[in-house]
Amino acid sequence: MKKGYQQQLLKLHQQLDEIQDKSNPLILQAIFDKIASIYEKLQDYAEAIEWRLNSLKIHETLGNKNKTFKLHIWLGNLYLRSRLFDHSLEHYNKAGEIASTENQKAEVLLRTGNILTWNNKLQNAESLLKECLAKPHIKLLLRIQAEQNLATIYYKQKKYTEAIKLYLHCLEMLPEDKINVKCDILKSLALTYYLNNEYKKALKTLKSTEKILPKVTNKLIWLKVYEFTYFCYEELQQFDNALKYYKLYADTEKEIKEDKITYKLAAIEVNNKLIRTQSEREIFKQKNTELAEKNKIIEFERERSDKLLLNILPLEVANELKNNGKVTARHFSDVSILFTDFSGFTALSGKLPPQDLVNELDICFRAFDLIMEKYHIEKIKTIGDAYMAACGLPLPDKHHAEKTIKAAIEMRDFMENRYKISKVKLKMRIGVNSGNVIAGVVGIKKFAYDIWGDDVNLAARMESSGETGKINISKKTYELVKGKFSLVYRGKIAAKGKGEIEMYFAEPLSMPLMDTIQKQKIKNT
User: Fold this and answer.
1) Omega into 394 within 30° of 0, i.e. cis?
2) Among positive and negative, which fits the CA dihedral 86, 88, 91, 95?
């Protein structure tokens, strides 16, 4: 697959070189669109957007309104996949300005409604989708999409009966050959049954979906089907089946991540090949190109180094290191620090096979990383079975304490669920403190972004002085979040090296109905 894409792109770029001087706009735009389509398949949306914009300029110049409309819709979709909602909405609005047919106007309403749904502006989204459905003679697939999206709004509003009715109507209208769409609707229908506590109906729907999964190309649908099936069996207390589908879910999630890496590597490989080919062509055309070639190599290496650097350091810190050759240690006065540790881990490590223990840590820490990303919390490091993170740096965040406790609750809930289904039984303590830290980069080889200070040490004491399954917070953190969580005063507790310290246990004001991080994410969508 990768080689095929590479060959196609090289051939298309060669065609561009051959016709560039002829300036034939229609041939140019056709090549631009083909290149964009390949980058979309490689999931390199930034490159795809660039080539679609090149094509858009040509059609705007030629006054081709129908093609301009389609390109604005394409660009809106690409920006939506990249989570750049403002840019996406901008292109949908431009498409709306030139829409002339009822189907075009309906599509703009549909796409704009999707953006509003993503941003949780459900009433506005509902209004647009109903306006779309009110238009007569629109294409069947547009109508199905609009009803499906309206059903999604209803389940977000907990209007489960209305949502179920619409999903069933979508299935009645859907042509038999639209397998991917059918699976997506069935998956959403099953979720709605589940949220309405109709677990057996949800399971029956999921079983119907599973039968046609082999024909579905979108692995994200596979992932959700396995995830929801796991949830249903768990609610029905059929734990063997729940574990079976959790494993299918985990394997599919891993496969999707590996596919993403493969596609990214393929896109990089294609771009590198194009750079080399273009360099060779320039050398052939010009005698004095040695310096230019060296500069290209240097630029390529610089970009590669930048990507590696961003995997290690926060963006702002990486930029400072590149610009100055060093990172100045900084003082941050409003930060919340989180520590976690697994109770009895050392003793457990002597009883279990090493691979089982490492695999379990990997599952837990990967889940923690996703939670940190969700709340924009900076992961600092892991040491053995301990996990350390901080919110409010390198960029300030006035909600640092609240976000850190929300993240801690999700971490705790995830571990409680893992305890039920994993053969490696881990119990976790969590400690949170807020205050001042010094942050900077240490080392020359394998350097790392780290934090220091008395409040960091106190956060570690919060963890070690806590209880398994509890979020133990300091007085400083308590003052920042009181009224936002259920906070239980523990009194003054002796902490190593700190004397007696006032401590509190933190819990949500109202406990969520679902007790896993995946379920909570669904509730919040």
Assistant:
1) yes
2) negative
Burial class, 323, CB count within 10 angstroms (exposed 0-12 / middle 13-18 / buried 19+): exposed
Q: Which structural domain range is residue 75 located in?
A: 1-11+22-100
Chain length of the chain: 525
Q: Identify the three-state secondary structure at position 393.
A: coil
Backbone angles phi, psi at 403, to 5 degrees: -65, -40
Give CA–CA dist 227/240, Å, rounded.
Answer: 14
The answer to whether 75 and 33 have CB atoms below 8 angstroms apart is no
**Distance from C-alpha of 35 to C-alpha of 438, rounded to nearest angstrom:** 47
Going from the C-alpha of 319 to that of each of 235, 311, 438, the distances in angstroms are 48, 13, 19
Cβ proximity of 60 and 68 under 8 Å: yes
* Helix (DSSP H) and strand (DSSP E) numbers for the chain: 21, 8
C-alpha 68, offset from chain centre: 30
Distances (CA, A) of 517 to 130, 188, 254, 376: 33, 19, 17, 16
In this structure, are 475 and 376 located in the same domain?
yes
Task: Let me know whether 303 and 386 are in one domain.
Answer: no
**3-state secondary structure at position 426:** coil
- 303 shares its domain with 347: no
Average pLDDT over residues 70-77: 91
Round the average pLDDT of the chain to a whole number and report it.
Answer: 82
- Please tell me the total count of domains within the chain: 3
Residue pLDDT, tens place only, 482-501: 999 999 999 998 888 788 89
Note the pLDDT of residue 525: 42
What is the DSSP pairing of strand 499-507 with strand 486-495?
antiparallel
Distance CA 252, CA 244 (A): 13
Q: Are 474 and 447 found together in one domain?
A: yes
The HSE-up count of residue 313 (CA atoms within 13 Å, CB side) is: 26
Q: pTM for the complete prediction?
A: 0.48
Per-residue pLDDT at 266: 54
Q: Which of 48, 77, 100 is the last residue of a domain?
A: 100
d(CA 410, CA 518): 9
Q: Which residue has the higher pLDDT, 442 or 462?
A: 462
Measured CA to CA in angstroms, residue 304 lies from 50, 298, 300, 312 at distances of 20, 10, 6, 13
Beta-carbon contacts of 388 under 8 Å, excluding residues fewer than 6 positions away, are 337, 338, 339, 340, 379, 380, 381, 382
Give the pLDDT of residue 292.
54
DSSP letters spanning 281-312: HHHHH-SS-HHHHHHHHHHHHHHHHHHHHHTT
CB contact at 8 A, 124 and 116? yes
Task: Provide Rg for the chain, Cα atoms.
Answer: 27
CA distance 465 to 472: 8
Question: In this structure, are 371 and 481 located in the same domain?
Answer: yes
Final residue in a domain of this structure, among 308, 324, 340: 324
Token couple for 434: 């807020």
